[in-house]
Amino acid sequence: MWRILQLIQSKLIIAIPVLMVSGIVLGYFTDVSFLKAAILPLTFLMVYPMMVNLQVEKLIQGGGLKVQLTAQAINFLIIPFIAFFIGSSFFSESPAIVLGLLLAALLPTSGMTISWTGFAKGNMAAAIKMTVIGLILGSALTPLYIKMLAGTSIEIPLFKIFTQIILIVFLPMVAGMATRKFIVKKIGIEKYNANLKSKFPLLSTVGVLGIVFVAMALKAKDITSDPNLILKIIVPLAGIYVVNYILSTLVGKLFFNREDAIALVYGTVMRNLSIALAIAMTAFSEQGAEIAIVVALAYIIQVQSASWYVKFTDKIFI
Fold first, then answer.
1. Residues 101-129: pLDDT tens digits?
2. What is the separation, in whole angstroms, between the first and last Cα of the chain?
3. Is the pLDDT confidence value at 62 over 70?
4. Distance of alpha carbon 101 from alpha carbon 258, whole angstroms
5. Would 293 be classed as within a structural domain?
6. What are the pLDDT digits (tens) for 3-41?
7. pTM attached to this predicted model
8. I want to staple 123 with a disulfide (CB 3.0 to 4.6 A). Which of 134, 160, 259, 274 is the partner?
9. Residue 290, domain CATH
């Protein structure tokens, strides 16, 4: 089973479109309202496993203040506004899609930040700290940003978003820390790192694919009534990622050494799309599936672009 999950995780660029199409086909031909009951358990399966490996203790380690402050400035003072501007320019008549673009841009860093930084031989310690800081800040600030930027065009259930973030971010974070501590105490850190650490993200992948499938199935009728919808979304979404890569790369090359610059790029371009999906599907009811389409498409762009950036890293940072 684990080998199958590893294969699926390594082929997300294929797996996500397959699940998207499968969900659309099922939703077009059958009544899929029963799938709403799967949203909460799939959300838990998506978020909790990735929290087990989150190293919150890295926050107390000193060093790297300049790159950390720069990363979070890009994450919260620049990228959300670029995403909102691009979304509003392309989808002034579709506030849910604008909100989807904003939501995909508001939750920086994920486990992939650390992984891709490692692949590109960047500063892993800085990437780990960015991941923890980005997750905590993003979770706390997302409701406020959504209300401030999108509150005039769509009803924002502010209290519900805060409540859902507590349920799908902070409670799993505490549970994940407790789980890791318990396992390490029982079997030791060496066995944990060797045998279990890599398995938790695989379980999270199952939740991601499940949520993507459910979101597409619930929105199948709307998608098939406008076949160009996905293309309309993916072009401005790709534009956000392009701007993000260019900005972060230029800042990294101008102000940091190679290792810190690579961590900066992956600490600002990689978004925590799992949590964005979870918020979309649990906090926005009927509009959640439409918002989730945007986040699902972001997975495709994010994974593919990150892998290509690794290939060109040595040429970019000479």
1. 999 999 888 777 888 888 888 998 898 88
2. 41
3. no
4. 30
5. yes
6. 888 888 777 778 888 888 899 999 999 999 898 888 888
7. 0.83
8. 259
9. 1.20.1530.20
- Those residues with Cβ within 8 angstroms of residue 214's Cβ, 6 or more apart along the chain or in another chain: 23, 32, 35, 36, 38, 39, 42, 281, 289
User: What domain range includes position 102?
Assistant: 45-194+229-313
- Out of 133-137, 143-147, 153-157, least confident range: 153-157
212 vs 21: CA distance, rounded Å: 10
**246 domain residue, yes or no:** yes
Confidence of residue 77 (pLDDT cuts 50, 70, 90): very high
In a domain, 201, yes or no: no
